[in-house]
Amino acid sequence: MTARFSMKSVQPAAYQAIDAIDNYIDETKIDPLHKELIRIRASQLNGCAYCLNIHNKDARKIGETEQRLYVLSAWREARNWFTDEEQAILALTEEITLIANHGVSDEVYNRAIELFGEEKTAQLYMAIISINIWNRIGVGLKMQPK
With 75 labelled, which of 35, 39, 91, 138 sits at a CA distance of 20 to 30 A? Predict the structure, then answer.
C-alpha cells in the first residue's frame, strides 16, 4: 500500500487547526492515560495502523501495561482490568466513533455525565472527535507506521 499526499504539506492550515484541538485537549482535565485509551480504542475501531503504532507506544511510555493493551479491544470481557471511569470512557469512545450505527445511547451519555459532569464529558467528546479526525486522515491517506 502506497501512502498518498501529506495533509500537513498540502493543507497546512487545516492540519494546524486539528493540531490546535489536540493542544486544547492537552490542557483539559482528562488523565493522560485516559487520552491514550481513547486514541487507541478509536484507532482500533477505525483500523488506523499509523495511529495505533503511535498511541500504543505513547501509552506504554506513561505507564500503561502490556496486558491491558492486549485486551483493550475486548475490554468488556476484561472489565476487572479497567476502572468504572475507564469503562465509561471506552463505551463513549465506541459510540461516538461508530455514531452512524445508533448515535450515543442515553445509557452511555448519562453514565458519563454521572461520573464526569458536563464539562469533563464535553472534553471527552472533543478528545474522541479529535482522534477520529486523525484516523480518517491516516486511513484515507493510507499512512503507514514508520
Answer: 138
Convert the pLDDT of each residue in 90-109 to its tens digit.
999 999 999 999 999 999 99
The single residue listed with the C-alpha cell 458519563 is 112
Q: Give residues with Cβ within 8 angstroms of 70, minimum separation 6.
A: none
Task: Kindly list the domain boundaries of the chain, sorted by start residue.
Answer: 30-140
Residue 112: what residue type?
A
Does CATH place domain 30-140 in 1.20.1290.10? Answer: yes
- The letter for the amino acid at 2 is T
Determine the residue type at 46: N
Q: Tell me the three state secondary structure of residue 49.
A: helix
**What does the CA dihedral 70, 1, 139, 46 come to, rounded to 10 degrees?**
-40
Q: CA-to-CA distance for 87 and 81, rounded, in angstroms?
A: 10
- Section 109-127 average pLDDT: 98
**How many other C-beta atoms are found inside a 10 Å radius of the C-beta of residue 107?**
10
